[in-house]
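Structure first, sequence second, as always.
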């Protein structure tokens, strides 16, 4: 007898298809600008020296064991992570209004935060920017929230649609949750100014909207941990409630360790923690120990912390320099159009404004790979490859 199919599954491809195509391309001049991870000038992944040093200390410490962590993770890691995002002298921390739990990087922090809200918060709608990181629209419904979008990007100016954003948040249901990128918005690279953040904050507080920050790039945008956390700190300083999902993937190069934290600033912080445990326990029991130990080792030690900030700034500076070099190369070629958005946008990605046909042309003729929405990872670019990319963009738009 025939064995029945247990699963009626269509084949669904998940993951980076652009990279699959890139890997198959034999061309020596191929360039992959689709990857959301930092690369050195030589195109190699980077493990910061301070991370290597912390790992060495951990390995040499014979007293370390590998027992389970508590449900909420490593205590030092949680305490210090809250200081990284809210500031060392944050009144919210000093007044015990913050609860932090270690989660599985940024994604896991968003997922746990989403489910916590679905179970405990009266409003079950989360407003996410249009566009946003593709996983937001997938993970929040699975956490039990319904997703709506607010206007964010303005294609003609390749900047922020601030008026549209304010209008959409004004008409959001009272108390709705709003997902905000703390800095270096993915995929557009477009962030509000500090003055615009202040207007957003006032509007949200006046409507009782709950901010849920996604902080995947702290330090990557400007090179300064404090400057990149400023929008979050504005919301925490006003005493209102706030959630933050923090990732150490990019800013410590700990991608595969998947270490992050969810912090909730609220007057009922203690009760929040017990509810978070109820979310985490049946999901994965408790988080892994290694990545969090690396982070805690670095954050605990003043010298290592300083070393981290220097290495982080070097990564941010290389990205900023790539923006400048690409902008200048296009200007030198007289490429039609205003390319100033390349230097105005912030963080790992540039939303070039190239359409899917132009992207396909650049892949076919120049072996340059990027997502079809025209997003390029500046971190995947090097000085050596800037002329090749500028030639390709020039040819695509003329
Ligand atoms: N949020 C945004 C905006 C991102 O771009 C990313 C990763 O690319 C994440 C969250 C999740 O990162 P991770 O789960 O690797 O920390």
């Amino acid at each position: 007898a025939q064995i029945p199919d247990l699963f009626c599954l269509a084949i669904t491809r998940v993951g980076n298809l652009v990279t699959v195509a890139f890997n198959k391309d034999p061309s020596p001049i191929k360039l992959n600008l689709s990857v959301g991870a930092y690369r050195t000038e030589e195109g190699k992944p980077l493990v910061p020296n301070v991370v290597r040093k912390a790992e060495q200390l951990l390995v040499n410490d014979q007293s370390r064991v590998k027992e389970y962590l508590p449900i909420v993770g490593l205590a030092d890691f949680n305490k210090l992570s809250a200081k990284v995002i809210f500031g060392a002298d944050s009144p919210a921390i000093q007044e015990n209004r913050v609860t932090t739990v270690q989660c599985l990087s940024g994604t896991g922090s968003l997922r746990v935060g989403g489910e916590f809200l679905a179970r405990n918060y009266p409003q079950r709608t989360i407003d996410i920017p249009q566009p946003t990181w593709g996983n937001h629209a997938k993970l929040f419904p699975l956490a039990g929230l319904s997703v709506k979008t607010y206007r964010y990007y303005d294609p003609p100016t390749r900047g922020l649609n601030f008026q549209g954003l304010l209008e959409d948040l004004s008409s959001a249901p009272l108390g709705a949750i709003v997902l905000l990128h703390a800095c270096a918005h993915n995929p557009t690279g477009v962030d509000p100014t500090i003055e615009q953040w202040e207007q957003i904050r006032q509007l949200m507080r006046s409507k009782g909207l709950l901010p849920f920050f996604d902080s995947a790039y702290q330090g990557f945008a400007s090179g300064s941990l404090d400057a990149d956390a400023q929008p979050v700190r504005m919301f925490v300083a006003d005493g209102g409630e706030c959630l933050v999902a923090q990732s150490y993937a990019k800013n410590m190069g700990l991608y595969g360790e998947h270490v992050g934290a969810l912090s909730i600033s609220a007057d009922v912080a203690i009760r929040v923690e017990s509810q978070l445990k109820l979310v985490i326990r049946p999901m994965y029991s408790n988080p892994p120990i290694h990545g969090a130990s690396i982070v805690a080792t670095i954050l605990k030690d003043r010298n290592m912390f300083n070393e981290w900030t220097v290495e982080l700034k070097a990564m941010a500076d290389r990205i900023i320099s790539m923006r400048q070099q690409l902008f200048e190369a296009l200007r030198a070629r007289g490429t039609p159009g205003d390319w100033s958005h390349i230097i105005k946008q912030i963080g790992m990605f540039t939303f070039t404004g190239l359409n899917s046909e132009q992207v396909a042309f650049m892949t076919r003729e120049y072996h340059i790979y990027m997502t079809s929405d025209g997003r390029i990872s500046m971190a995947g670019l090097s000085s050596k490859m800037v002329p090749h990319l500028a030639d390709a963009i020039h040819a695509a738009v003329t």
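Margin note: The CA atoms of residues 48 and 252 lie 7 Å apart.
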